[in-house]
Amino acid sequence: MIMRRILLVLVALFIGFGSVSAKKRKEVKSDLVGVWQQAGTMDGKLQARPILKIIDADGTFSTMVVYSGNSSGKMTQLGTYKIMNDSIYKETITNHFIRSQEGTTVPIKYRFADDAKEVLILEFENGAGKAVFREMWLRISAKAIAK
After folding, report:
1. Whole-prediction pTM
2. What separation in angstroms does the CA of 94 have from each of 25, 40, 107?
3. From CA 71, how far away is CA 87, in angstroms rounded?
């Protein structure tokens, strides 16, 4: 009877430790993880746009527009992502301001334009496969916090 209880406790502990380690394994370790601000060139100068992308280590992402002045920002899409290799990841859109985009999975080519991995270039096709979009994103870093 005592042996049975000890065995039951050991099995419960084993299952518990397995659950904790499974959660740790799901965390994405990638240079993509972080907060990014979209940028583009205007008159030959690099300018930040009011669009943010947050790529979380838990495998989720979100994109939002940040307004200035007295108006508030707006979440434009939410979803999950999976890194396929060192140059392609897939975003699966769960919520989007264009409802027809929900449920779609978009393969995205990515590369870093600098050695510090602070400038991210994304390329992807629209749903019809007729146009390729290229976006530039700048990492928003905690290093930039002024004290």
Report:
1. 0.76
2. 23, 27, 15
3. 37
